[in-house]
């Protein structure tokens, strides 16, 4: 099998390929296709590993969509964490519950009185508000 004439992802032979070690601009940043494959799909890719260095256009589009979806999820996760953190530390009289890593709940009120609380080394930092 001639490794440079097939797609590294789907193993099909097509006339048009993209080299996985070249950079593509995605979301305004240069990103190597090999990094996308490595980070999104946990595939170990190194230059000169003897495997195909090309990816077909169909697989390129799928990898790009996966990368964009991953970035969207990461951004949403960061926004939610920031939102939860801001609401957890707001100065009102509502009570908050922290889910600790030991599956116990810690009740904390906004005044700072707590049983365990966010300074607890077992606190995961995942907070939910309860009225």
Automatic annotation (TrEMBL):
Binding site for Zn(2+): 7, 10, 56, 59
Keywords, in A-Z order: Metal-binding, Zinc, Zinc-finger
InterPro entries assigned: Znf_AD
GO cellular component: nucleus
Keyword Mitochondrion in annotation: no
Full protein name: ZAD domain-containing protein
Domain ZAD: 5-83
Organism this protein belongs to: Acanthoscelides obtectus (Bean weevil)
């Amino acid at each position: 099998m001639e490794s440079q004439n097939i797609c590294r992802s789907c193993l099909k032979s097509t006339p048009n390929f993209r080299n996985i070690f070249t950079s593509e601009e995605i979301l305004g940043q240069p990103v190597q296709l090999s990094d996308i494959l490595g980070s999104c799909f946990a595939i170990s890719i190194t230059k000169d590993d003897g495997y195909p260095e090309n990816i077909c256009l169909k697989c390129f589009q799928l990898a790009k969509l996966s990368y964009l979806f991953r970035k969207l999820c990461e951004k949403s996760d960061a926004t939610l964490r920031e939102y939860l953190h801001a609401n957890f530390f707001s100065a009102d009289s509502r009570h908050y519950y922290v889910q600790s890593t030991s599956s116990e709940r810690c009740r904390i009120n906004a005044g700072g009185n707590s049983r365990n609380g966010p300074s607890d080394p077992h606190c995961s930092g995942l907070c939910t508000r309860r009225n």
